[in-house]
Amino acid sequence: MAPMSSATAGATSLPSGISVLTTFPDLLFVAEFVFGGLVWILVASTRVIVPILQGWVMFVSVFCFTISTLLMCLYFCGAHGGSAAWIAMDASYHVTAALFYLSAAVLQAYVTIIMKEAIDYKIYQEDIAAVVFSFLATLTYVIHKVFSLLRWKNSS
């Protein structure tokens, strides 16, 4: 009986309904949504100079934006239904997203640095903004990752 109540107690730490917007770290979904969307918009609006590198940045921003939005909506609906497997899935997603965004932020910074002289100033400013927001998204995902891993550890 104890393992069952332990799994149930851990699963209740995932939010459902409006509590997604009031509990930490799940409140970070909003920041992930905003920063990820800004990275997506800024990279898409600039001239793509190095397609392989900026393609990865676009993939990461669109993938993480989509999955974070989907998870937030599923949590709003209460789709996790008290399952402890959702806690592990949430933690593994945020670990992956943090690593993806770190790689994307570094690549976007590299492209911005090497193309400083080759592009006009307005595009350069947009690239700088994309770098800033990609590092902010990385930070947000890392913080969410840490607290998701703590929630997963405590649910076991």
Automatic annotation (TrEMBL):
It is a multi-pass membrane protein. GO terms for cellular component: endoplasmic reticulum; hinge region between urothelial plaques of apical plasma membrane; plasma membrane raft. The chain crosses the membrane at residues 27-44, 56-81, 93-115, 127-147. Its main location: membrane. Residues 20-153 form the MARVEL domain. InterPro entries: MAL, Marvel, MARVEL-CKLF_proteins. The keyword Ribosomal protein does not apply. One of its GO terms (biological process) is central nervous system myelination. Keywords: Lipoprotein, Membrane, Transmembrane, Transmembrane helix. GO terms for molecular function: structural constituent of myelin sheath. It holds the Pfam family MARVEL. It is found in: Membrane. Belongs to the MAL family. This is Myelin and lymphocyte protein. It comes from Sphenodon punctatus. The lineage of its organism: Eukaryota, Metazoa, Chordata, Craniata, Vertebrata.
